[in-house]
Amino acid sequence: MRIAILEDDPDQLALLERWLAEAGHDVHAYQSGRDAMRHAGRESFDLFVLDWQVPDVSGPEVLARIRNNVSKHVPVLFVTVRDSEEDIVFALESGADDYMVKPARKHELLARVNALLRRAYPREEEPLLSFPPFEIDTRHGEIRRSGTKIELTPKEYDLAVVLFRNMGRLLSRGHLQEAVWGRTGDLATRTVDTHVSQVRKKLDLRAETGFRVVPIYNYGYRLEQVGDNAGAA
Length: 233
Description:
The chain is of the alpha/beta class and about 230 residues long. The chain has 2 domains: about 1-120, Response regulator (Rossmann fold); about 130-230, Arc Repressor Mutant, subunit A, CATH 1.10.10.10. It has 9 helices and 12 strands. The chain has a 5-stranded parallel sheet, sandwiched between helices. It has a 4-stranded antiparallel sheet with strand order 6-7-8-9, with helices on one face. A 3-stranded antiparallel sheet has the order 10-12-11. Helix 1 links the parallel strand 1 (about 1-5) and strand 2. The longest helix is centred in the middle third of the chain and has 15 residues, at about 105-120. The chain starts with a strand and ends with a helix.
């Protein structure tokens, strides 16, 4: 999962970043609230970890920006030294999903992060995922339309699965890049666009067939169900 951390203490930031990266997450670290807010508007993340007291813009202000301008539903976890009941209640009532008091403990932090991610993004464990007329066979890495296998490259398959698993959710190009190709600095964003175009073409994803890929200029893509399929999901 793609996680953004706001923490102004470089040692604490490095520690949290290492714990989450070792757990398999793609981590983006910010030391100022303004940087965190700017990137939250440009990129999509699966979860935010926020400190309260940071330079220029506080954690609660970043939370307010996320809830008002980014997403009402993306999980937000506070990790802060502020331990008063009033602060905890204020954060939770302002839209935070969970609250931890420093010093953070590794296994507790990972357990809370995983719990928030499970609730926000329930994953289908079945080997066959159904989005009629599409079936995704995760065991064999195949996508079928009305029973007919669609020929896809491995990256096209991975990209299609990410889009279907996040139906209706706007994903930035950077998010898609990391989910499919991993964190690599030499991959042009045009590569993402080209693969989305191929997936759209090969799966015939357009409004007339029940699904469509919606491009958002300078941001990314969202897969939507339309017509009768939208109510059947």
